[in-house]
Amino acid sequence: MILLTRIFAMIGLMCVTLFSYGMFLDIQAMDETEGGYEAPFVGVTGKTLDWEGMDITNTGVVQRGHVVNFIVNATTGMISLEILGIEFEARPLSQRAIVVHKPREAFINMGFNPRF
């Protein structure tokens, strides 16, 4: 019985570790820019978001990850997170994200009507 308990404990530990690592990779891949955190948001380095490379939905775009899907509503600018099929509204796009990543222009090119 002790051996069975240890086996299940190891399986559980491995699952939690892999889930945490996948979440870390997804969050790290969402925004690969650094700097420019204060207005006027200059001095930004790194790769900006590739809006056209994301999956297009009826309401916006989705960047699919290992564990977390980042959903951006193209009309309202609201960011939602989908974890294990459950969607959580997180927050609207920040002013830095609007200036640096230029989602408004990308959404207009995709045929959406952004109001943020």
Gyration radius from CA atoms, angstroms: 18 Å
Number of helices: 3
Low-confidence stretches: none
Major sheet strand order: 3-4-5-6-7
Q: Characterize the main sheet.
A: 5 strands, antiparallel
Number of strands: 7
Task: Indicate the mean pLDDT.
Answer: 95
Task: Name the beta content range.
Answer: 25-35%
| Molecular shape | elongated
Distance between the termini: 59 Å
**Category from helices, strands and their pairing:** alpha+beta
Which range best describes the helical content: under 10%, 10-25%, 25-40%, 40-55%, 55-70% or over 70%?
A: 25-40%
Give the SSE order as H and E letters.
Answer: HEEEEEEEHH
Q: What does this molecule look like?
A:
The structure is a single chain. This protein is an alpha+beta fold and 116 residues long. The protein contains three helices and seven strands, in the order H-E-E-E-E-E-E-E-H-H. Strands 3-4-5-6-7 form a five-stranded antiparallel β-sheet, with helices on one face. A two-stranded antiparallel sheet has the order 1-2. The longest helix has 29 residues, at 2-30. The model has no long low-confidence stretch (mean pLDDT 95).
